[in-house]
Design a protein that fits this description.
Low-confidence stretches: none
Distance between the termini: 147 Å
Number of strands: 0
Number of domains: 1
Radius of gyration: 65 Å
Shape: rod-shaped
Strand content: under 5%
Largest sheet: none
Order of helices and strands: HHH
Length: 180
Amino acid sequence: MTSQKEQAESADRQVEEQVVAPQAETTQQVADPLAELLSRAQGAYTAYIEAQKEVARGFKEQQKQLEKAYKKTEKQVNNTYEAAIGEAAKAREKSEQKADEAYEKAREKALELYRESLRQASEDRKKTSEEATQTYQESARQAQKAREETIEKAWKICSGSTEQAWRTFQGETTLKEQAD
């Protein structure tokens, strides 16, 4: 585009130089019909050059409008991009916030379950300890009772044997009674 622009400006300068020089001569040769044709040709050429200048101005105007449209489009695209980035950032922030909330809920639930498990374990331990203590006390009571019964039986046997031995020693019982 720049080379076309430079070429158009160079052509404009050359045409102006050519048009100005022959116009001075044309006024002197008006009487000559060839000169009149030449004058008309030069007028047409001048109109052509003006048309070329008009086309160049139109081209420049079109180029400015295209640049303006490009900049407007670029600005719209940048605005859309910025809006999309902003929305993406908001969505990310919202997702992170939801993740944090979900984490906190899960953490609280886990702590609650942990506390409940500790409470249940403590209750189970206490219950098991109480049952073990009761079992121990019952076993100790039964062992005590068995001990006392055994001691009582042993005492009776011992007393009975001692009495019999005493009676035997004193001759109160016969061998027959001892056998019974």
